[in-house]
Design brief:
Helix content: 25-40%
Structural class: alpha+beta
Number of strands: 31
CATH class of the largest domain: Alpha Beta
Low-confidence stretches: none
Shape: globular
Largest sheet: 8 strands, antiparallel
Strand content: 25-35%
Number of domains: 5
Length: about 600
């Protein structure tokens, strides 16, 4: 394939700005998918993506348009899947910046734009959803001009739903996005931007070929591991696998490696030829740093090997997910897993259940605290269970993030008050637009632990749904935090242990035991709920036992008959409390209820 006839591009936008719908129109217009096979969100192949209306995984597809080959990578919009976006950007030369005409520029629009500009990609700005009654394309265009520094004439207007302006976008991709500039006759260098594990064919690597050619039957070698294997098949995405004779420089496609060792072919590695290997691998990707940690433990102790197999395969398909083995006295063997955010955690938990039928107990999410002991040793604690006795700790530091919040001007006061309630430190304010409906960009710094659970929900509440946010890791700062243990029926529940600020301990403890009381089902005995800090009880509640009406069958007679039955019931419950009481089964929904402010 001639490189000057290839265009590699992706679509970047804030969540729900129409990326997947625009990709659907591209597939229809180019005839890549027949109309009878079309359905909404065609590239979102996972049930979870369709149910939640969000893109979770990047998805590549090859389209033929006016004699040109267009390789599109559809990307997620949520901040928790930013690593998927960064990998897509490294495999293309241009990006369509999509902005919703009813919402304008949002926080993730800014983040994705900055990432694309850092890769020196050609930006094609598009205002989408111009067909809606409340659309304001002129305002969105002015905001784009301020951000990108382009001319207003460079901006395209479209409705991905109705198809208006979609052909003009494809024409702009052909005209503005440069062709790839690799060496077709050089040593093979192909960047792995995604991968998955096929039970029958082994590791399937999604690659962008930068230099050289790879064919079926060639002996390939991942640069990092050096494990050679025969290429069983190469092909492109239409959007299903379409086998081809070869993939040349500038093309995007897949390689069926035949490797059964899922650690031998990692995202970001360079595939080269065993016969004529390259001396210099491609730069790959910046290693992603997990921001949220939680323990995953199998509900059945005997399922630990199944869980290990499942998380290893998920790791192949999601390079931002990480895990290390962990052991808990209460929960047994499991894994300490790292995520980019709480939505990322929830998606992984749900995928484990649906794709591998693995039910897991998830411990309270936490951030990575850096602890310096009295002897100078530094450790990283990824959860409350890893916290040593306070008398052994000299200092504790926690991660802080830099946050950008975009909100209409009338909600600035409420938004700023809310962020301060979450220990936010104000940095500066910027303004988007100059009309009466202008919007404000608030820049803050705040602890990552404060935004783990319900920060986003509270932000949407105070702004009536109009505000958006994006954040990135900033640095580590000293924190005055302690481990809080939760006792259920006088038994410590490690999965509910959490890290709290000392000045909030009593308030948080009271909130947790109150939420547990509302969430836990009744037992046949009284259940004590206690929050303790360093052995001291700071809050407590009690769940009363089931009570059977033992006097219901009585229809009269002496009152002493009722008293005898009630006294007998009382003795029975006392006996049950002493010998029959065991660990209370905590349902999954109780964990999230505990975390809510």
């Amino acid at each position: 394939m001639e490189q000057n006839k290839i265009r590699n591009f992706c679509i970047i936008a804030h969540i729900d700005h129409g990326k997947s719908t625009l990709a659907d129109r591209f597939l229809e217009l180019t005839g890549t998918v027949e109309k009878r096979q079309m359905k909404d969100q065609l590239l979102d192949s996972m049930d979870l993506e369709r149910e939640r209306g969000i893109t979770i995984k990047l998805t590549p597809v090859r389209m033929d348009y006016k004699g040109q080959v267009l390789n599109l990578i559809d990307t997620p919009g949520h901040a928790d899947f930013g690593y998927e976006v960064s990998r897509s950007l490294a495999a293309v030369q241009g990006a369509i910046l999509l902005v919703d005409a009813t919402q304008g520029v949002q926080a993730q629009t800014l983040a994705n734009l900055h990432s694309a500009l850092a890769q020196n990609l050609t930006i094609i700005p598009v205002v989408n959803k111009i067909d809606l009654a409340n659309a304001d394309p002129e305002r969105s265009a002015r905001e784009i001009v301020e951000l990108v520094g382009c001319e207003e004439s460079d901006i395209l207007y479209a409705s991905a739903k109705t198809g208006v302006g979609v052909m003009e976008i494809l024409d702009a991709v052909v005209a503005r996005v440069p062709s790839p500039s690799g060496n077709p006759s050089g040593a093979l260098r192909a960047l792995i931007f995604d991968s998955l594990y096929d039970t029958y064919r082994g590791v399937v690597a999604y690659v962008c070929v930068v230099d050289g050619v790879i064919r079926k039957g060639d002996i390939m070698r991942p640069f990092a591991t050096g494990k050679q294997s025969e290429v069983l098949e190469v092909g492109t995405f239409s959007p299903k696998y379409t086998a081809r004779e070869s993939l040349g420089a500038g093309e995007t496609g897949y390689i069926v490696t035949g490797l059964k060792d899922i650690t031998a072919c990692r995202v970001g590695d360079t595939i080269t030829s065993a016969a004529n290997p390259t001396k210099e691998p491609l730069p790959g990707y910046k290693e992603v740093k997990p921001m949220v940690f939680a323990g995953f433990f199998p509900k059945n102790d005997g399922d630990i090997e199944r869980l290990r197999d499942a998380v290893e395969k998920l790791k192949m398909n999601d390079a931002a997910f990480s895990f290390t083995p962990e052991h808990s006295q209460a929960l047994g063997y499991g894994f300490r897993c790292g995520f980019l955010g709480l939505l990322h955690l929830d998606i992984i938990r749900e995928r484990l259940l649906r794709e591998y039928t693995m039910q897991v107990v998830v411990t309270v999410p936490s951030v990575g605290y850096h602890l310096t002991k009295n002897n100078g040793e530094t450790i990283v604690a990824h959860g409350a269970v890893a916290f040593p006795d306070p008398s052994f700790i000299r200092t504790i530091t926690e991660p802080w993030v830099r946050m950008d919040i975009i909100t209409p001007e009338e909600y600035v006061g409420g938004t700023m008050q809310m962020v301060q309630d979450f220990r936010g430190v104000y940095v500066q304010t910027e303004y988007l637009g100059s009309d009466s409906a202008r919007r404000v960009i608030l820049h803050y710094e705040l602890p990552l632990s404060q935004i783990l659970v319900d920060f986003y929900d509270r932000l949407k509440s105070v702004s009536q749904g109009y505000a958006s946010m994006n954040y990135e890791l900033l640095d580590y700062r000293v924190a005055n935090v302690r481990r809080m243990d939760i006792l259920v029926a006088e038994i410590p529940e490690e999965s509910l242990a959490t890290i709290v600020y000392e000045d909030e301990a009593q308030e948080v403890g009271r909130r947790i035991v109150t939420k547990l009381k509302e969430s836990l089902p009744k037992q046949w005995f009284d259940v004590k709920l206690q929050a303790t800090l360093g052995g001291k009880i700071v809050a407590s509640e009690r769940i009363s036992a089931f009570r059977k009406d033992v006097t219901g069958h009585l229809y009269g007679g002496d009152v002493t008959r009722k008293k005898k039955l009630l006294e007998k019931q009382k003795k029975g419950k006392k006996k049950m409390a002493s010998i029959g009481k065991g660990r209370v089964d905590i349902p999954p929904e109780a964990y999230l209820a505990v975390l809510k402010r």
